[in-house]
């Protein structure tokens, strides 16, 4: 195989056809039908730099005479990698976007997007109950650059639009579902508010995955995932992705070469492998989470369950209208204090006590201890984090076994 064949692949990219399901897109979306060396899987191109056969080839590359904008040929690893590019095409196809750009972590995706787009002195609006590190970046680090953040209650779209400052607000940021209360944003309303006011919109769709929700189809400008979670599915890598319109993503890719948040080709390969089973994993997690939520809501030892698949959840109607599944995370409040809740968690035999979510193993945590340990109960409560709050990230274990484990721990 020649160098040119290696770089380009032998056949055109096999774009997903209309009507293909999420599992088909997860396996085949954006993939080259014929890969380098006739490999079935995407090869790992483990290199930090790229060579040129002579000076003329370098000049042709710089003048784009030989290599088109969409090709994988690069000069240095910080600007691109064929393995990474292959995964980016798949992620774009999954979310229905024109292009995608991979980063070293989910937070790198969020911070790089905002740093790349926001000018000094800008203003952003974000909904509460967003991931605490996203809030911290916006309210602490961006503030140092003269960028102000307004936080509005999730679901209050009048307050969201009222917070927009004409000619200054550049971004509306939300998650859907949120962490940890699984609030579901009305994507259509957010997109409409953004377009009316000429403000860009971003949705962190990590908890939903492209299987359950595709924000771009509702008019959102950027969708972000911590690929560490469901997209990878095996708790063995860190990565993040931003998906959107081609010209906007290319600008982010150019900025990534400066900011440096690149993903390693080994991690990109593992992510590609994990994505192939995304559909079957997420559907199992959807099913088990709904069963767990229904069981917990009926149990006397549980004060409240937060799961968008339950009619008791404040955003059940919105979730039912725009999501194909309700997700694999269930949050609930145990009938007891901090120590009683800890004892209940310690009696469980299947889930591991650990942060994160979206993997094949079930994980459970008390946010009061895992994420807010340094704060007092009063400080946590002011942030909406109760001492008896539990976040249960469902894995792919059999639903009956998860329910039996919960039952014995609650007995």
Summarize the structure in words.
This protein has 411 residues and is α/β, with parallel strands linked by helices. It has 2 domains: 3-275, Aspartate Aminotransferase, domain 2 (3-Layer(aba) Sandwich), CATH 3.40.640; 278-410, Alpha-Beta Complex (Aspartate Aminotransferase, domain 1). It contains 17 helices and 14 strands. The chain has helices spanning 3-8, 22-28, 55-62, 82-95, 106-117, 132-141, 157-162, 187-196, 209-212, 246-259, 265-275, 278-297, 316-322, 338-347, 367-370, 377-382, 399-410; strands at 13-14, 31-32, 99-103, 123-127, 148-152, 169-175, 200-204, 222-226, 240-244, 302-306, 329-334, 352-353, 363-365, 389-393. Strands 3-9-8-7-6-4-5 form a 7-stranded mixed beta sheet, sandwiched between helices. Helix 6 (132-141) links the parallel strand 4 (123-127) and strand 5 (148-152). Helix 2 (22-28) runs antiparallel to helix 4, helix 4 (82-95) packs parallel to helix 11 and helix 12 runs parallel beside helix 17 (399-410). It starts with a helix and ends with a helix. 47% of the residues are buried. Mean pLDDT is 91; it is low at 1-18.
What fraction, in percent, of the residue positions are helical? 25-40%
The radius of gyration over CA amounts to 22 Å
| CATH class bucket of the largest domain | Alpha Beta
Count, helices: 17
CATH topology assignment of the largest domain: Aspartate Aminotransferase, domain 2
- Lateral arrangement of strands in the main beta sheet: 3-9-8-7-6-4-5
| Number of DSSP-assigned strands | 14
Beta content comes to 15-25%
């Amino acid at each position: 195989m020649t160098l040119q064949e290696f770089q380009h692949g032998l056949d055109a990219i096999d774009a997903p056809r209309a009507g293909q399901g999420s599992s088909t897109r997860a396996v085949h979306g954006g993939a080259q039908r014929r890969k380098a060396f006739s490999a079935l899987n995407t090869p790992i191109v483990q290199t930090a730099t790229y060579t040129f056969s002579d000076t003329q080839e370098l000049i042709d590359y710089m003048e784009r005479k030989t290599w088109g904008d969409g090709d994988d040929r690069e000069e240095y690893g910080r600007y691109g990698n064929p393995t990474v590019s292959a995964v980016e095409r798949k992620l774009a196809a999954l979310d229905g976007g024109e292009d995608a750009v991979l980063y070293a972590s989910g937070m790198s995706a969020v911070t790089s997007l905002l740093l790349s787009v926001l000018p000094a002195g800008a203003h952003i609006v974000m909904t509460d109950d967003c991931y605490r590190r996203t809030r911290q970046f916006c309210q602490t680090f961006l503030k140092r650059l003269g960028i102000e953040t307004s936080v509005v209650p999730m679901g209050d779209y009048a307050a969201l639009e009222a917070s927009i400052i004409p000619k200054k607000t550049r971004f509306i940021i939300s998650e859907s579902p949120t962490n940890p209360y699984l609030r579901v944003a009305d994507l259509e309303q957010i997109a409409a508010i953004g377009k009316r006011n000429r403000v860009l919109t971003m949705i962190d769709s990590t908890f939903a995955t492209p299987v359950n929700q595709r924000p771009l189809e509702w008019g959102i400008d950027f969708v972000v995932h911590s690929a560490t979670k469901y997209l990878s599915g095996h708790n063995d890598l860190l990565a993040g992705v931003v998906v959107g319109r081609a010209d906007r993503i290319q600008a982010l890719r150019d900025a990534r070469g400066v900011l440096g948040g690149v993903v390693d080709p080994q991690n990109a390969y593992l992510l590609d492998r994990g994505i192939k089973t995304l559909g079957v994993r997420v559907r199992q997690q959807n099913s088990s989470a709904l069963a767990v939520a229904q069981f917990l809501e009926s149990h006397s030892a549980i004060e409240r369950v937060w799961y968008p698949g339950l009619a008791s959840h404040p955003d059940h109607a919105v979730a039912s209208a725009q999501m194909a599944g309700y997700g694999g995370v269930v949050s609930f409040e145990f009938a007891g204090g901090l120590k009683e809740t800890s004892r209940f968690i310690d009696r469980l035999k299947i889930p591991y006590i650990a942060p994160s979510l979206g993997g094949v193993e079930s994980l459970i945590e008390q946010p009061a201890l895992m994420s807010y340990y340094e704060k007092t109960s009063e400080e946590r409560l002011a942030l909406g984090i109760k001492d008896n709050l539990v976040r249960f990230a469902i894995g792919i274990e059999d639903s009956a076994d998860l329910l039996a484990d919960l039952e014995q721990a609650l007995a």
